[in-house]
């Protein structure tokens, strides 16, 4: 069942009276920050849109949005010191969620129109053009989530999410050799060739689709993330 919009930046709260988790939507000039803010607030978070270093570091969770070109997003992120903030948070085990191009920039590199741009290199791999007859991939699609997922907990296997993108990661290259460490959980979707649709890797989670535009399924996913903070 859908819930009405909460006032901008106002959390819906919890029935137990537990203080809402504080989430910063990092504002570096690239991303649907207002729709992300509203979706997170409906999911019960205390949300602020900012690029302030101290607030981004102190928040329970940091959401990194992204729309447009990989190279432009990376420049905007670096200009706002977002690359340093993401790195520092992850070094301390502090949760970060990347969305759309905010997920893509977490990889080693992006290749657009033959131009290679260095990403944050949290994960190995290249963001490359979709290999499909119709590009961009725009609209609703299903995903194949792995066993043990927390991000997709409580969602049906046929749940659909909203995608808008022309580039993706087609090959996952990171595996954990140490049996004491949990390997990343990778969710896939298909548009032409299969591509990475989401990743759960310790404190770092990300989705290629837009949960804030994905109706009840996206709301459940954001609630799941907030519940881990």
Automatic annotation (TrEMBL):
Native organism is Streptomyces dioscori
Its assembly, as annotated, is:
Heterodimer of HisH and HisF.
Cellular compartment(s)? Cytoplasm
Where is each Glutamine amidotransferase domain found?
A: 24-224
What Pfam family does this protein match (any one)?
A: GATase
Q: Which domain of life is it from?
A: Bacteria
Q: What does this protein do?
A: IGPS catalyzes the conversion of PRFAR and glutamine to IGP, AICAR and glutamate. The HisH subunit catalyzes the hydrolysis of glutamine to glutamate and ammonia as part of the synthesis of IGP and AICAR. The resulting ammonia molecule is channeled to the active site of HisF.
What do the Gene Ontology cellular component annotations say? cytoplasm
Q: Name one GO molecular function term.
A: lyase activity
Keyword Nuclease found: no
Q: Which UniProt keywords apply?
A: Amino-acid biosynthesis, Cytoplasm, Glutamine amidotransferase, Histidine biosynthesis, Hydrolase, Lyase
Annotated metabolic or biological route of this protein: Amino-acid biosynthesis; L-histidine biosynthesis; L-histidine from 5-phospho-alpha-D-ribose 1-diphosphate: step 5/9
EC number assigned by the record: 4.3.2.10, 3.5.1.2
Give a yes or no for keyword Transmembrane helix in this entry: no
**Active site (record annotation):** 100, 210, 212
Q: Which GO terms describe its biological process?
A: L-histidine biosynthetic process
The name of this protein is Imidazole glycerol phosphate synthase subunit HisH
**What reaction gets catalysed by this protein?**
5-[(5-phospho-1-deoxy-D-ribulos-1-ylimino)methylamino]-1-(5-phospho-beta-D-ribosyl)imidazole-4-carboxamide + L-glutamine = D-erythro-1-(imidazol-4-yl)glycerol 3-phosphate + 5-amino-1-(5-phospho-beta-D-ribosyl)imidazole-4-carboxamide + L-glutamate + H(+); L-glutamine + H2O = L-glutamate + NH4(+)
